[in-house]
Amino acid sequence: MRAMDFADQVVVVTGGGRGLGAALVRAFAGQGARVVIDYRRSREQAEALADELGDRVVAVAADVTDRAQVDALFAAARERFGTPVTTVVNNALADFTFNGDARSHADAITWEEFSGQFEGSVRGALNVAQAALPGMRELGAGRIVNVGTNLFQNPVVPYHDYTAAKAALLSLTRTLAADLGPEGITVNMVSGGLLRTTDASAATPEEVFDAIAANTPLRRVVTPEEFADAALFFASPWSRAITGQNLVVDGGLVND
């Protein structure tokens, strides 16, 4: 299987303008990759990040739930860098706040809440993967990295809609891996716990961070930058024989 150095990669990070997405963009850019920051509403943050990181990084607006916009995103990436996208990180998240006290519980949650999360996590990831495939096939290689959650194994908060959508994304990760492996395209997932701190976790009470840290072997909460390290691994030459996997990056809180 062909393995590309970061300097040869063109990476699309969805939802890359802020929070975890910005950490992912910085990580790939720091390794010399060319990076496309996809954003939906965070234009100011995305463009500022691109300006900061230099001419190997560009910000492009696209709602990942809209296939036409995603196709335009990939066309813009190819026009800017003169080569197909090699790597995608499906990080974009439908609007969500990580505060268990503010989430709908079992007796009140609506299908509309589930549907919104499935649109962002599953439809968005599928649109991006499908838009990437022609270029990856042209190159004979590709890397797809999906962002998941450790709440599959440790559902300590009632994020019913978010967790169900990410579980579906894990299933898609594995079926795509089986389908695309013969073409040299790997598909993996990196699943974090609560991160300290992103825009989505900013509403999380401090006592929740403290409780997680106390029950984690490393006795601290993982940062977005540490999470991004794992995404780099799945895009690196060292992961060339790995596909269909879900790597939990939460400081050891969950170990299965």
Automatic annotation (TrEMBL):
This protein's UniProt keywords: Oxidoreductase
Pfam families (alphabetical): adh_short_C2
Alphabetical list of InterPro entries matching this protein: NAD(P)-bd_dom_sf, SDR_fam
Oxidoreductase listed as a keyword: yes
Statement: the UniProt record of this protein carries the keyword Translocase: no
Coiled coil start-end: none
Listed GO MF terms: oxidoreductase activity
Family: Belongs to the short-chain dehydrogenases/reductases (SDR) family.
Descriptive protein name: 3-oxoacyl-[acyl-carrier protein] reductase
Organism: Saccharopolyspora flava
Source lineage: Bacteria, Bacillati, Actinomycetota, Actinomycetes, Pseudonocardiales
